[in-house]
Amino acid sequence: MKILLTGGAGFIGSHVAQAYLDQGHEVVVVDDLSTGYAHNVDPRAKLYKIDVRDAQLSEIFASEQPDIVNHHAAQISIPISLKDPCHDADVNVMGFINILECCRKYQVRKVIYISSGGAIYGEAEEYPTTENYRPAPLSVYAINKMCGEQYLQAYRHHYGIDYTVLRYANVYGPRQVPYGEAGVVAIFIEKLLQGLIPTVYAYSDEPEGMIRDYVYVADVVRANVLALTEGNNDCFNIGTCVETTTLQLYNAICWQLGLDVPPHRGEARPGDLRRSMLDCSKAFKVLGWSPIYNLVDGLKQTIIYFKEKGIEK
Description:
Largest sheet: 7 strands, parallel
Number of domains: 2
Strand order of the largest sheet: 3-2-1-4-5-6-11
CATH architecture of the largest domain: 3-Layer(aba) Sandwich
Low-confidence stretches: none
Mean pLDDT: 96
Number of helices: 10
Order of helices and strands: EHEEHEHHEHEEHEEEHEEHEHH
Shape: globular
Radius of gyration: 19 Å
Strand content: 15-25%
C-alpha cells in the first residue's frame, strides 16, 4: 500500500518510514525540515519539503493518492506551546485539519495519529494510567493533541475515515534531537560526551526529578507497523509501564559512559508534570504489541549512535 508519512524526516517518523519500506510499502514523506533532516529520509522514499499547513498539500495528495496517512509532524515542545499557544494551535490543530481535509477529498482509508500519553492525561489520579482515564491536559501542546483526537472521531463519523491513535510515552533512541522534555535522553548523552554537566530539573519536594515512562524507538516503530491493519477507531498507550525518575535516567547514562559526574540542579519548569506512566495492556490485547527493550538495552543502542555521530562530525 502507499503511505503518506508527515514528519518522516524527524526522529521517530524516519524510523517508521524505514520499517514501512522494509515491509514493501510505498512511502511518501511530507516534512518541512524545520526540525527533521533530509539525510534521515530513506532514499527509497519520496520526500516533499512542505509544511502541513500549506494549501499545496492538496496537490501532493491528488498526485500520490495515498491509502494511509501516518501523522507524526508536530510542534512537540511543551514550553514553546505555553510561550506561543497560537503557533502550537496553528501547527498541531490547523495543520492537522488541513491533512484531514485532504484525506476526505482524496478518499484516504485510514489515519494513524500520534498523540501524547505522556502529556494528555495531566497529573492523572489513575497510575499507571489507562486509555479509559479521562484526559486532563495541563499544557497547550497536550490540549491540542487531544483536539486532534476529537477531530478524528468527527471525521470518522461524517466521512467514514478509519483511524488509530497511538499515545506515546517518552520516546528515545537514535536520531533524537536534544531539545524539549522528550529529548532529555539526547540532551544528557550529548552534553556528557562533550564534557559538559547536564541539569536535572526537579520539584523541591521530589529531588530525584519527574517520573516518566521511557520507551525505545524500535518498540514504537513496531506499534506503527501493527496499526496499519489493527486497532481501527481506537486509541492505545505505547510505553513500558516502568517508572524512571530524571535522576535515575541520568545515573543510568553516566554508568554506561563510565562517568561519575553529579548533575547541576534546577527548579521544575512550567508544564513539567510530576509523574507519568502508562498502562499498555490494551495495546497487547488488541494490537499484539508490547515493548521488547528495557531502559538499559535501549540506552546502550542510543549511546552507540551518538558516539558514532560524534566521530562522523
